[in-house]
Amino acid sequence: MLSILIWLPILGALVLCLLPKKLGAAYLRRVALAFGSLTAVWTVWLLTQFSLSTVGMQFTEFVPWIKIIDLNYSLGVDGLSLPLLALNALLTLIALYSTAYSGERPRLYYALILLVSGGMAGAFTAQNLLLFFLFYEVELIPLYLLLVNWGGSKRDYAAMKFIIYTAVSGILLLAAFLGIALLGPVPSFAFDPAVTRGLPPLTQVILLGLLLLGFGIKIPLVPLHTWLPEAYVEASPPVAILLGGVLAKLGAYGLLRFGLELFPATWHLVSPILAGIGAVSAVYGALVAIAQKDIKRMVAYSSVGHMGYFLLAAAAATPVSLLGAVLQMVSHGLILAILFHLIGVVETKVGTRNLDALNGLMNPIRGLPFTSAFLVLGGMASAGIPGLVGFIAEYLVLQGSFAVFPIPTLLCVVCSGLTAVYFVVLLNRTCFGKLDNETAYYPVMQWSERVPALILATLVLFLGIQPGWLTRWSESTTNAIIATVPTTDTTLSLSKLNRLISTR
Amino acid sequence: MADIVDIAVGAGSFTTLVTAVTAANLVDALKSPGPFTVFAPTDAAFAKLPPGTITTLVQNIPQLTRILLFHVVSGKFTQADLAKLGVVTSLEGSPIKIDCTDGFEVKNATVLAADIEADNGIIHVIDNVILMG
Amino acid sequence: MLITKVNLPPSNHPFAEIIHRLEAGGAMLPDTPENLMQIIGLYKAYAVPMDFYWRDLLYIAEREFLNPLPFFKYFLPQEYLDLPNHYAGDTADLRIWRGEATAHPELLAFLAKGETVSMPKIFHHLWHDRINMEFAEECMRAMLWHRGMGGQFDPYLDSDEYKANADRAIRAYFQGNPLMQSLYQAFPDMFLEQCRQASYYSNLGLFWEVMAPVFFEMSDLYDEGKLTSVPEAMNFLVNGIFAIAGRPIYHHLYVRGECYEIIPKSKGFTWLYEAALPYVEAVFYRTSPFRGTKSYNAQAKQVPEAQKDFHFGILYADVFPVGTAGIPPTLLMQDMLHFLPPYLVNYYAQHCRGQDDTLIQLGVSFQRSMYCVTSAVIQALRTALLYPLDDPNPRHLQANREFFESQLNRFLRPEARIRAIQSQDYR
């Protein structure tokens, strides 16, 4: 059942490649959309079949593959991965829909997006470390091609930087996975927390450290984030939506799945460091975003900041904070997608993303009132205004983390205020003020450009008012994960970690 | 000698002006001892005005009076006097600029015949109806 | 006959091209068929609401006067809709428009139905489906507020004679109303200032009474193919200005059938000096920073210190409305939208966003048409105060040029749209 999520998009990519040459871009887009929609429908069906009370993997599939290296085709889904699978299906559909490509190589473009989507679904469902790694690496290549072929003028540089960073990330992960598999009592790549929990503490620290570095690049966390602004900014809007909305979540998901779940005790030990990194990411992202002149870059840096909240919540590892972390992944994916989509619209219509040049787009007659209105909504959601999904996520993160890490949490609260600062700057300059007479001959926004924003905005609003629809999928899973984290010792410190290491 | 009105009537080339002065009931005033300096536009000068201008003015005596009074200055000023003064104030209240550097010009009008003496003043014949402002 | 054409050396002014065009008898607006179509169409679209403006302005000045609760001042009685225009119809003093003297048929049709359906006037009013007098009042207020822009009308408002006339009128108006009478006793200056405002209502109403038939006639001539270029249109305006120059400006008040002459016709105030020139100065050039179109920061010197340096008029205006309705220039555009001739409706549908931004497109056309009117004023002043364009005397031609240059100097500031209207790309 889960296989369909992986192989349907890949089949779609193949079909696209095999279609006759003379077919136009519009036809190819329809075919791609058909496969994207089927995947989305299948995801919805999975949601309806998903048992909320069951702890552990559901819809598991197991096919032995290459036994000699213990690489098995083993899939499963739980409350952690299900929302992300849904996010992946939705954003893929939106990425496909929002590209009305008339020009360059549409066939390749749609095929690559479907490949990325399939790879992502595989990574989210893989229950074998090696299989995860395979999918993790496999979606890199189409993403690299998407980056290098479509996008801004510096896309070559951005794509190269992206591939180098993520390749390093992959190597680190491979090292960690090999360690897990080989150091255990029975060499196995199967996902099995029971095995890793038995490893010696120092080994756990090293392996977790490798995972942190690997996934930290992907998320990304300060100071491993420098590939992000270039990649997000140079990517074409649909690719940016995939990059920011789904790919970054792959890192976050990996951290929870393979860091927290495999090494709960060690996670508990290093969590003060993680919380610190989270707070630093949040502060850094917010401050750098304030200084930006390019609105896409501003949103890209806001992404760094928001993933800081995620790390704080994951580090705190309380039932509320972990639920907040999952929600933060989904809400950030939705909000980033709507923001990148709208910024893409602004760029195509106005021809610039520069804050100094943009002005008065709210003008009802000559401006882009629809875009502006939804940009305001997106900005509000990102800044955590109550009633929108961003608020619920941030609230759970902060509420859940405060008891464990008061100082980093307070820093993140301040950052939440700073988020409002740069979004006010962005919205004030972009949407409000006086539209310039000389330049304001912008084309009208098409319905095809409105639909993605409408869908995303509806979700942002609906899930903001009814967060229960989001939390219900993950609650039992996150609670089960938390149960494995030691809670007796609440005085966590570096000295304890040092002591532990030195006793070895 | 004749007074200002008599001279104007007698000259024959000021029929529009005389009609206007009569319509505006200024005849008696211009026959009074004064003395006045009058810048008298010829019929040709009035003919230069776009059509309708005179019609409207004749329908509205106070407004016509005002335009006519702009052509009259209290006191008797010869060309030489005016050249020295540079600016005189009309009975209407607005100033009239005089330029004698190159001929004898009153505002944007050129004087066709200067220093025509009358009992109660002096007449300068001009080739344009002058307007305030 | 041998004519020796005298030529001046080319002008060094930044707008030398426009100055040479003015010296050749042209307008500030380039002479193209597209410009002509836009300005004539806009004159027509402007004249229909203007036919309402002048009637209502006079109604307010003559009847509503100091009504402390003027809820119904925009509800024009039939008497004022039938008021014969002095420059149209068979009864005209000087027939400028060949049409009728009573309210324009398109205006009457609009008053009856509006954009919606036929219903009592009060609902049209509340639904804002009406002619927006707010724009006309804003123009009046600009004239009142700037004051002192030449002419004898404004100084007269401070004279003892005016105060005595106003006093008599105010007493008569509030006869049998002890409350307002005692308030008048307590705050006479406040009432006097309101009376001055009413006088400007009258002034502007009398000014526009002339302009509406002028614009109607231009539109008819264009439709008949008798007006074929921008300079011709401008010259029609110049002749109009001269023809009506002597039209009296006054303020009468009618109370219980009796007429009180607050400013009598016998003061000799003329249309040109006491209404037209102050109007052009106040409305085309200066006005005031309209709330809502843009935020101006006076502390940051975005608003000039001296009133004479104000430059928020239509010649400088940014016609993009921000927000929604309620801003006088936007309301004027809304008024004109109802009366666009079909050729302009088609024209706007083909450009920019078509129907969606017709308001802005017609605002830009309006700006072009007002540059043509301003050109007419400049040429009229040149005719009245200076020399013919073909004057053989080079000293006279130089004086003309200096005049044109001094007029165009007012458009040197960057806000002026004179550069923009030189090109058709500005829409």
Q: What does this 3D model show about the protein?
A:
The complex is a heterotrimer of chains A (504), B (133) and C (427). Chain A is mainly alpha-helical and 504 residues long. Chain A contains 20 helices and two strands. The radius of gyration of chain A is 22 Å and the shape is globular. The model of chain A has no long low-confidence stretch (mean pLDDT 89). Chain B has 133 residues and is α+β, with helices and mostly antiparallel strands. In chain B, strand 6 (109-118) and strand 7 form a beta hairpin. Chain C has 427 residues and is mainly alpha-helical. The termini of chain C are far apart. The chains are: A mainly alpha (504), B alpha+beta (133), C mainly alpha (427). Chain B binds chain C through residues 49-53, 55-57, 59-60, 62-67, 93, 102, 107-108, 131-133, and chain C through 93-94, 150, 152, 238-239, 242-248, 265-270, 273, 277, 381, 384-387, 395-396.
Which percent range describes the beta-strand content of chain B? 25-35%
Radius of gyration of chain C: 22 Å
Work out the helicity level of chain C.
Answer: 40-55%
Q: In terms of structural class, how would the helical and strand content of chain C be classed?
A: mainly alpha
Overall mean pLDDT of chain B: 91
Instruction: Round the mean pLDDT of chain C to the nearest integer and report it.
Output: 91
Topology, number of strands of chain C: 2
Rg of chain B, Å, rounded: 14 Å
Task: Give descriptors for this structure.
heterotrimer; A: 504 residues; mainly alpha; two-stranded antiparallel ribbon; 20 helices; 72% helix; globular; B: 133 residues; alpha+beta; 7-stranded mixed beta sheet; 38% helix
Short description:
With 504 residues, chain A is mainly alpha-helical. Chain A has 20 helices and 2 strands.
List the helices and strands and how they pair.
The complex is a heterotrimer of chains A (504), B (133) and C (427).
Chain A: H1 2-18, H2 25-49, E1 58-66, E2 71-77, H3 82-97, H4 106-125, H5 129-138, H6 140-149, H7 155-183, H8 193-196, H9 201-218, H10 227-234, H11 237-260, H12 264-291, H13 295-316, H14 319-350, H15 369-382, H16 389-402, H17 406-430, H18 447-465, H19 468-484, H20 494-503
Antiparallel strand pairs in A: 1-2
Chain B: H1 4-11, H2 15-23, H3 27-31, E1 36-41, H4 43-47, H5 53-59, H6 61-69, E2 72-74, H7 79-85, E3 87-89, E4 95-99, E5 105-106, E6 109-118, E7 121-126
Parallel strand pairs in B: 1-7
Antiparallel strand pairs in B: 1-2, 3-4, 4-5, 5-6, 6-7
Chain C: H1 16-23, H2 33-64, H3 78-81, H4 105-113, H5 121-126, H6 133-146, H7 153-156, H8 160-173, H9 178-186, H10 188-223, H11 230-244, E1 251-255, E2 258-263, H12 271-286, H13 328-337, H14 342-349, H15 358-385, H16 394-408, H17 418-421
Antiparallel strand pairs in C: 1-2
